[in-house]
């Protein structure tokens, strides 16, 4: 213990003498934002501030979340551990009440111990407090989430306060925008994406720093994974308007750094926690739910600014990246008696130079969203193939309360009830009932429509992906590693030989291809 502390003190002194200027990190996290930006070839949704950030960043074209659900993803971002390893199996707020395990060493915890200042403004949505301690904390825990997460003027005020308190320590500031999360389920008066909140119309209030941008539904480009209907287009137009508030908020926050004279000392990371709240998006691990925008702006690698990276990266890479930025090591410790190893890697080398090898696979892991929505999935995504394991495949895929009430989902329900053309690549039945294994050739079939898992030609591909996925589940101490065909025994007789013991008669699904054929309508 004593030696440990001396190490930290030595490190801090050393740090300050070697680097005369403190080096900081700013994380800008959108809530359910996707690729609605020119940076990612959307020509309609205007994001001038993100575009500007991109011009001083490396733009990641192959970034993925570890899980497409809010609290689980935020826990993975802040711990570097997948949700099944850090314990945040579902949403943290209200009745759901999920929390990470008490002994998890999160990024704010590690930084605070190393003498780095930590701050959070906006949506936190993880707990318990002692696992995720931020020194400066302005979150939904003691503010209205609309104010601290969507009112960019209100948020800017707190960033200003954080940056102007005469503290010269290097810092991590994590800004959790609540935009462009849906809001029709809790605040229908503000529109399906809270696109009217603060727009200056009667009863909506004003957000002084926001100039709302509205869109014509005729111009909307419907992504392949959403039904092409008028109602869906209106829903997407509302999402775009809310993205204008996120985009302007990002511009404001960066401006605050500049005014405080720390912009050129700060690593800026922009991404999203999960996929967009549309069918196949949030709570799914299809690419529509798993792929994320990601920009990283490093003041030390200006020669890479504006360039794109094709490295396959994951949000669990953020912890090793930030630790390396601050020159810190991840500690050696155990969780639930098992050694904890980070499976993510620092992205700093990519900010310096595009890698010529490696960075060819990412993993994802989902268990719940709301407490009632048990649907465990494990995924390996490589460049050509993607494997999805739907562990409890006989259950219908669950729908969350927020998405259920959305115009887009109501439209799918209504069209199904009235036996109308859905203008969608799936039927509700094929969406709800999924086979145990889904294998896609992403290069030939980027929309993930043709499942190859039960095609004999792909038996070797399937087998090798299953082995890789299983190894990752093993390294990350996944309690679900044996499911659904077996039971994991890891204590008593099995203490030194953790094993999957078979459940006879239930090991492999009997697959009826006709049930799962996805009809392109
Ligand atoms: C919220 O809590 C933090 C400490 O946890 C405190 O510094 C801050 O002033 C509080 N804000 C409000 C509005 O109560
Ligand atoms: C910071 O320091 C300056 C100069 O010493 C002083 O004028 C100012 O009031 C201080 N601000 C705070 C928030 O302590
Ligand atoms: C946003 O915050 C500012 C500053 O606190 C406040 O004046 C304004 O009324 C807020 N807007 C809304 C819509 O609540
Ligand atoms: C279905 O989509 C096509 C374009 O792909 C469009 O022309 C048509 O109007 C849509 N039908 C409905 C019912 O929205
Ligand atoms: C449901 O579908 C019917 C028949 O197409 C249509 O008349 C009605 O407006 C739809 N309702 C909603 C809420 O979309
Ligand atoms: C995990 O891997 C270790 C080392 O290869 C092996 O001994 C152990 O049985 C594996 N655990 C499971 C549950 O497969
Ligand atoms: C059930 O398990 C037994 C023992 O493994 C096996 O012989 C039998 O074929 C299985 N039956 C079915 C329907 O899978
Ligand atoms: Ca979210």
TrEMBL record:
Extent of the signal sequence: 1-20
CDD domains per record: SGSH
SUPFAM superfamilies linked: Alkaline phosphatase-like (SSF53649)
PROSITE patterns in UniProt: SULFATASE_1
Keywords, in A-Z order: Glycoprotein, Hydrolase, Signal
Gene Ontology process terms (BP): glycosaminoglycan catabolic process; heparan sulfate proteoglycan catabolic process
UniProt superkingdom: Eukaryota
Protein name in the entry: Sulfatase N-terminal domain-containing protein
A UniProt-annotated Pfam family: Sulfatase
Residues covered by the Sulfatase N-terminal domain: 23-327
Family label: Belongs to the sulfatase family.
GO MF annotation, one: N-sulfoglucosamine sulfohydrolase activity
Names of required cofactors: Ca(2+)
């Amino acid at each position: 213990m004593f030696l440990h502390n001396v190490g930290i003190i030595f490190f801090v002194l050393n740090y300050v003498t070697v680097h005369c200027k403190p080096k900081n990190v700013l994380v800008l996290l959108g809530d359910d934002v996707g690729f609605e930006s020119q940076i990612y070839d959307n020509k309609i949704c205007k994001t001038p501030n993100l575009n500007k950030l991109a011009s001083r960043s490396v733009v990641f074209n192959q970034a993925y979340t570890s899980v497409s659900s809010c609290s689980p993803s935020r826990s993975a971002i802040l711990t570097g551990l997948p949700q099944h390893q850090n314990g945040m199996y579902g949403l943290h707020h209200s009745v759901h009440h999920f929390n990470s395990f008490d002994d998890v060493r999160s990024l704010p915890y590690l930084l605070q111990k190393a003498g780095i200042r930590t701050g959070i403004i906006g949506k936190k949505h993880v707990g318990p407090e002692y696992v995720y301690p931020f020194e400066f904390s302005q979150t939904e825990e003691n503010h209205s989430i609309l104010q601290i997460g969507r009112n960019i003027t209100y948020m800017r005020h707190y960033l200003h306060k954080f940056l102007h308190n005469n503290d010269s320590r290097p810092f991590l500031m994590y800004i959790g925008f609540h935009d462009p999360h849906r809001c029709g389920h809790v605040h229908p008066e503000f529109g399906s994406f809270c696109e009217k909140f603060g727009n200056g119309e009667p009863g909506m209030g004003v957000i002084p720093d926001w100039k709302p941008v509205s869109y014509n539904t005729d111009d909307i480009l419907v992504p392949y994974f959403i039904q092409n209907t008028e109602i869906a287009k209106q829903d997407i137009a509302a999402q775009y308007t809310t993205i204008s508030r996120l985009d302007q908020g990002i511009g404001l926050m960066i401006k605050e750094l500049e005014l405080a004279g720390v912009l050129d000392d700060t690593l800026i990371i922009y991404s999203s926690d999960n996929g967009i709240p549309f069918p196949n998006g949030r709570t799914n691990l299809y690419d529509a739910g798993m792929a994320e925008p990601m920009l990283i702006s490093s003041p030390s690698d200006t020669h890479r600014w504006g360039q794109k990276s094709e490295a396959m990266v994951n949000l669990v890479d953020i912890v090793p990246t930030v630790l390396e930025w601050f020159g810190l090591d991840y500690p050696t410790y155990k969780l639930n008696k098992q050694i904890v190893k980070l499976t993510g890697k620092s992205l700093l080398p990519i900010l310096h130079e595009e890698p010529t090898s490696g960075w060819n696979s990412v993993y994802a892991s989902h268990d719940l969203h709301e407490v009632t929505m048990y649907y465990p999935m494990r995924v390996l995504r490589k460049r050509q193939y993607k494997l999805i394991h739907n562990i409890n495949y006989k259950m219908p895929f669950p729908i969350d309360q927020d998405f259920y009430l959305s115009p887009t989902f109501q439209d799918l329900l209504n069209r199904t009830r009235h036996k109308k053309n859905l203008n969608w690549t799936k039927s509700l039945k094929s969406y709800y009932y999924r086979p145990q294994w889904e294998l896609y050739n992403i290069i030939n079939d980027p929309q993930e429509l043709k499942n190859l898992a039960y095609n004999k030609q792909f038996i070797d591909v399937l087998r090798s992906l299953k082995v890789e996925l299983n190894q990752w589940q093993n390294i990350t101490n996944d309690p679900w590693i044996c499911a659904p065909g077996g039971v994991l025994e890891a204590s008593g007789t099995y203490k030194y030989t953790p094993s999957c013991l078979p459940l006879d008669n239930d090991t492999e699904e009997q697959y009826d291809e006709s049930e799962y054929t996805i009809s392109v309508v």
